[in-house]
């Protein structure tokens, strides 16, 4: 019995000896003990414990490898000089905070509303509800003021559908007062209930100048009978490729843009912050994303982009 007691006592001493070392040397002893770590440090429970706190923070973190985490954002800081003027090439946006009433449905089987449940920009989007009686070629139309789209190259917008769409299920109609109508097919919307950025090619090589030099209306056209369905549109814009600033990474979330007078500005006053969808927007493509100005505010200024990337 005595032998068993002695054995247990020895085991206990071996297990708690490192802890005694902390108290023997005070916090200095604790630091010396941690400096001898030669193994992975793994918490007892997943996603339970923190390292530091909001009022007890560590100073610097040195990592030689990769930081992994299901909720860890990758942040990218990108500098650029001589941003373009968003008004130079006649860029326009065609959906404001109250699109219902400006975009007019052809009949009662197609109902437009300003929706505050699903949106990408601001707090509303244009919702179009198609009833069973809706017919192919039904339109929702925005009247414009005889705009000259000659030399313009891209038309882009956000779209969300509660129904999966194939290519050409919807179309955009460009109505030219002197020429007539030109229809452009939508690409497919492969995932329902998810916002997707869409770009349509309106370059002169695709749509001849005479077909778009007197644009007096834009329309969303019902291309294929899909039955009852809802579709949402937000932030429809027209721009030129020459105004695009290439981003280094694929964007998940654009956080901020700050600008100063120029890269040579001795004061380097970076106090001016720009607002997405007011001063600029992000054009998203498969491999590379682009920053595009809307207003004249960024013109000739140096900029710093801060964004989360994939």
Commentary on this structure:
The chain is mainly β and 310 residues long. The protein has helices at 2-24, 26-34; strands spanning 74-80, 92-93, 103-105, 110-115, 125-130, 139-147, 154-161, 170-176, 180-185, 196-201, 215-222, 229-239, 245-246, 251-260, 272-274, 280-284, 289-293, 302-309. Helices cover 10% and strands 36% of the residues. Strands 2, 4, 5, 7, 10 and 12 form a 6-stranded antiparallel beta sheet that branches. α1 (2-24) crosses α2 (26-34). The longest helix is centred in the first third of the chain and has 23 residues, at 2-24. It is globular, with a radius of gyration of 29 Å.
Shape: globular
The share of residues in helices is 10-25%
Q: Roughly how many Å apart are the termini? A: 64 Å
Structural class: mainly beta
By CATH, the topology of the largest domain is Jelly Rolls
Q: Can you tell me the CATH superfamily of the largest domain?
A: Galactose-binding domain-like
Radius of gyration: 29 Å
- State the major sheet: 6 strands, antiparallel
